[in-house]
Amino acid sequence: MTQPSTPRPSAARNAQSLDFAPVVLIADDDRVMRELCCESLADEPVRVLTAVNGREALALAEACIPDLVVTDVSMPQLDGFGLVRALRRLYPDVPVIFITGDKYHGDRPVEEVAAEHGAVATFLKPFDLSLLQDAVRRAVPFMSPPLGASIDDGRAA
Description:
Elements: E1 23-27, H1 31-40, E2 47-51, H2 54-63, E3 68-72, H3 80-90, E4 96-100, E5 104-105, E6 108-109, H4 110-116, E7 119-124, H5 129-139
Parallel strand pairs: 1-2, 1-3, 3-4, 4-7
Antiparallel strand pairs: 5-6
Helix pairs in contact: 2-3
């Protein structure tokens, strides 16, 4: 099992500050994509857990309740849709973001299948990682900026 990622020094926070941070679980069998997703969230006030497949992600989720799951659709052992079906039995309301290189799941558009699985967002690879950052901020309510503040610059509107 992959261990929680370590905050980068440039994030200007210590490990204790992440003790009560929202947990984002990232599942993708592509090491580079996992690392890119982690890197894109490194300056966010979240604790990131990573998994190489759906089974590993499910085991991590059973040990540490995620506040958000970001999962690839196509993975060995347990795909993203299977992972979400299993997670829904444990945590019915956990928000999910799907990422995938496939436009179709079988003969249906992947966005349609993802929506049926309760996706808050779906991204087709390759995608702009700033979109993932924005989706994470929207999906985890206590990460949202204060009322009247802009996500872009953090200043009051």
